[in-house]
Amino acid sequence: MLRTKPLWAVAAGLLALPLLTTPAAAAPEPLRVISWNICGEAGGDRGEAGYCPYRNEPGKKVRQIAGLVAEHQANVVLLQEVCGVASDSHLELLKAALGSDWSFARADGARPDGRVDCRGSLSGNLGLGIAVKSQITDTKVTQTLPPDPTGKSKQTLPTLCVRTASWADTRICTTHVLADPADPRRPQQVKNIRTAVSAGGLDVVLGGDFNLFPGSAELKPLSGTYEECDAGGAKRNEVTHHAWTNGKHVYRKRDHIFAAKAGTSRRFTACDADQSLMDTTANTSDSGRPSGYSDHAPLIGYLPAKS
C-alpha cells in the first residue's frame, strides 16, 4: 500500500526550501561625460579665419570621439557643431562606431542665413548631438536663442535634452551659446538655457560650448545654479579653446560641464580637458598638418551615481 507523508511533514519540507527572491535591479552607473565642439561643419581653408582641422573628413573626428569613449569608459557624449541625418555624417558614423548599446538624439542649429545643411563635401544637417549608453526615453529641443531684433539673422541655437532609462532622474543636455560678445541676446539666451534644463526639478547634466569665460557675469545664471566640473582643484579652469589673434596664440576656456550644485550627492569626482586633441598650430597656408582635430579641446567630467 502506498503511504503518503502527513501534511505536517510536507509543510516542514516546504519551509526548509530556499526562498526564491527577485533579483535586485542593477544600480545606475556613475556618469562619465564627454563634451566637445568638434567644429564639424565644413568651410574655411588653411590660413582663413574660419579654418578648423579635418572639417571635411568626418571619419577622422569620429575616430577621436570613439577613442575618448573607450579611454574614459564614457557613457554620455555631448557634441556641438556636429553633422547628422546623412549616412556619412558624424553622428551616423559614431552610431556605427559605438554600437547598439548606445542611443542618439540630435537637433538642428541654423546659421545666420537660416540654412542647416552641412557645407563643403559634407552632407546632413548641422547642430547638436547627444549619445548615451542607455535607452533614451524622452527628447526635448528648446530654441533658447532669442530672435534677432533686427530681423537680419535667422540663426537658431537650441538646447537639446534627453532622459534615459538608466538615469531616470537626470536630464542630460547640451547647448551652444552665441559667439559674438557684442550680441545683446547672449544674457537672455543663458537665462533661457537655465529655464529649459531645470524644468521639472530633475537633476541636470549640461555640457556645451558657452563662448563665455569662467567668472563671466553672463554665465552666472548657470554657474550660480550648478556646480562646474573644473571650478576647483588642481586643474581649475583648464583651457578648452585655441585661436589666433593678430598673429598670436589666444588660449581661453569657453567650454563647460555643469551639474547639481555643490553640496549635493552628485558632485564631480574628476574633470579634465584633453588639450592633446586641440589644434595649436599656426593658421597659415603653409602651416602643414594640424596638431589636433578641433579648435576646441574635449572636456571630460565624472559624476558619481546618485545616492
UniProtKB/TrEMBL annotation:
PANTHER family: TRAF AND TNF RECEPTOR-ASSOCIATED PROTEIN (PTHR15822), TYROSYL-DNA PHOSPHODIESTERASE 2 (PTHR15822:SF4)
GO MF annotation list: endonuclease activity; exonuclease activity; metal ion binding
Pfam families to which the protein is assigned, alphabetical: Exo_endo_phos
Swiss-Prot/TrEMBL cofactor(s): Mn(2+); Mg(2+)
Biological process according to GO: DNA repair
Signal sequence range: 1-26
UniProt keyword annotations, A-Z: DNA damage, DNA repair, Endonuclease, Exonuclease, Hydrolase, Magnesium, Metal-binding, Nuclease, Signal
The protein, known as: Endonuclease/exonuclease/phosphatase family protein
Endonuclease/exonuclease/phosphatase domain: residues covered: 34-296
Recorded superkingdom: Bacteria
